[in-house]
Amino acid sequence: MGRIISSYAKNRMFFAALSLYDCLLQFPYLKPDSYTYPSLLKACGGLKSVDYGEKIHTHLMKDGFLSNIVIASSLIRCICKVWSFRFRCEGV
């Protein structure tokens, strides 16, 4: 699953990547790993989705992946993309 999500994100098919992530969460024995989360965060940033960003951030905290430097930097990049978009839309 992680490779498919990664391929979707790499090819700018962000909605497909996040939809597959939603399907993945339906099965408790299938969990995203440290290679999947950066792709999910790239998809989230690409769609400028605050809701998915919060959802993924919650899972990162619960699963203990925030100490991974690659995931942490992907999270920061995602937050910057989402918030810069939000400020441009609101005119702040």
Give me the secondary-structure topology.
Blueprint: H1 2-10, H2 14-24, H3 36-47, H4 50-63, H5 69-90
What can you tell me about this protein's structure?
The protein has helices spanning 2-10, 14-24, 36-47, 50-63, 69-90. By secondary structure, it is mainly α.
Summarize the structure.
The protein has five helices and no strands.
From the structure above, extract its key features.
about 90 residues, mainly alpha, 5 helices
DSSP strand (E) fraction? under 5%
Q: What's the number of extended β-strand segments?
A: 0
Largest sheet: none
Report the total helices.
5
Global Rg: 13 Å
Structural class: mainly alpha
The low-confidence parts are none
SSE string, helix = H, strand = E?
Answer: HHHHH
Could you give the distance between the termini? 39 Å
The helicity comes to over 70%
Q: Mean of residue pLDDT?
A: 89
